[in-house]
UniProtKB/TrEMBL annotation:
It comes from the Bacteria. Keywords: Membrane, Transmembrane, Transmembrane helix. The chain crosses the membrane at residues 7-27, 60-83, 95-111, 117-139, 159-179, 199-221, 228-247, 259-281. The keyword rRNA-binding does not apply. This is Uncharacterized protein.
Amino acid sequence: MQNKKIITNLVFLIVLFASAATVAGIFSTGGSGEYEYRSIRGQTVTIHGDGLYQDMSADVAIQGIAQDCVTLFIAIPFLLVALYRFRVQSLTGKFLLAGVLSYFFVTYLFYMNMAMYNVMFLVYVALTGFSFFAFLLTLLSIETDQLPAIFSEKAPVKFAGGFLILNAIIITLLWLRVVVPPLLDRTIIPLEVEHYTTLTVQAFDLSLFLPFSIVAGLLLIRKSKYGYLFAPVYLVFLSLLMLALIAKLIAMSMDGQNVIPAIFLIPAIALVAIVCTTILLRNINTHHHV
């Protein structure tokens, strides 16, 4: 298989660099502890003041640590399993690998752009690059013309595609709930901006990742070859991302923050995403090497 060695090497680099980044995020210490900071907008923000994320707001820092735990203990082992499946030329393995690589790409794209500058900056840059090119090469290794014939006629394309569209709508509404009210009352800046420059997660989601969920869902419902390509990958990515969000919500709840309605919506999305991923991949006809 073309580029197998390159993809394998990139995956091992991701494992190495992500292990270093997550261990640093979870276990690093040092700093003055929590303190209050007045932002350029006059907002009082509680700063975490400890470890790698010491310059981040306390509520965001604990979310970063929670996601680091998911990345270290779930996503990295999953990546190695997916690589093994990929190397034996399993189509399911290609979908799994592309999906988990997209999780690493999105995760460290956000870390690179949102995390307050720290000693791991170049590690985040490297992880974003490694995961992007490994993802691209993995996706290009799939022969799209054969996909409609390889998936079973019983594959739940309408359900899975409809779910991808619904997921995008739900998350869009959650983010607009943050962005729109300040525009209407002319305060302009949401409190969630805190001492950061902008709403990075919402910006990437609303401009790129949520529209892609809608497109993948529509293409899958139409049984397009690109729907069969993008939807399984997105579902794998979404399953991992929702697990990370659940960990973040748990950390926020333990910190006394309000996590409603997300605490009900995110686990439901995670469950359906995992079910859709499992059923869709099980509807791949065996013994195909695409």
